[in-house]
Amino acid sequence: MGSNSILAGIGATVLAVTLLVCGFAVCCLPGVTTSLAGTVSTGETSPYTHDQLVELAGVTRAFTVDPHRDAEAAAEDVAAAVVDAARAASAEGAPKAGEWTDAARRALDAPGTSLDAMDALAKVSDRYALDGAAVSHLEDCNRLITGVSSWLGMIGVAALVVGVLLGVRRQWAALAFMLRMGPALLLALLAVLGVWGMVDFNGLFAAFHSLFFVDGTWTFSYDSLLISMYPLDFWMGMGGVWLATSVGLGAVCFIGGCVAAWRAQVQARELRDAAEAAARKGKGKKGKR
């Protein structure tokens, strides 16, 4: 097996991973969270209004996804947003004021920081605020995402380098293999996950979380603030965005692979014609002798 074939195999593998990562990166964009939360976070069973849940989902997304140097300060920002929303939602005359108990209102006046107030509010009920378990889980997510992002970025760079190297070498057949096999590998993986998701989405969701988090640290009551912001439909929508992005980019790569395959055919024909011309020229020289 030649070096170009090995490069093509490596390239196809890292390309498949890169396409998957690109889909996840799109899911992490603020606009995607806002759009999906605006669609599925109805607020019907929550003490917060729909608009407040959407706003809090955006704040929580930033805490979960964006890198931050000071985790405590970042958590304080989330708590401040939750406490401000809670005061507005529980105020007399507010649309959801009837959902708030006297104990919840008193918790908002707890002395100390916004984190202290949110913790006091969560102890009344996790419907009102993110409790310690929820904040801890979001911090775990942040450490995971920010921790692997640089490594995943390096995989993307590797895919680009291999593709450029094969192109510069004019190894069109190897490049075609990489650009078409990478999406094919991705589709094979997505097909398996897609069937699993259709048969048992909850099982797939649980299995995915179990890969990265300790059991019991990522399950919350159905009416908690965290689940009200991000219900099951939200994650199904995220899965759709992830799928559409990865498959769409894979289709672009596959088209590029078809172009490379055409270039490989042209190259092969040119080499064959050149070899035949050289052979005829050689016979002509022998004839003159």
Automatic annotation (TrEMBL):
InterPro entries: Lit. It comes from the Bacteria. Pfam families: Lit. The chain crosses the membrane at residues 6-29, 144-166, 172-196, 203-221, 241-262. Keywords: Membrane, Transmembrane, Transmembrane helix. This is DUF1461 domain-containing protein. It comes from Adlercreutzia caecimuris B7.
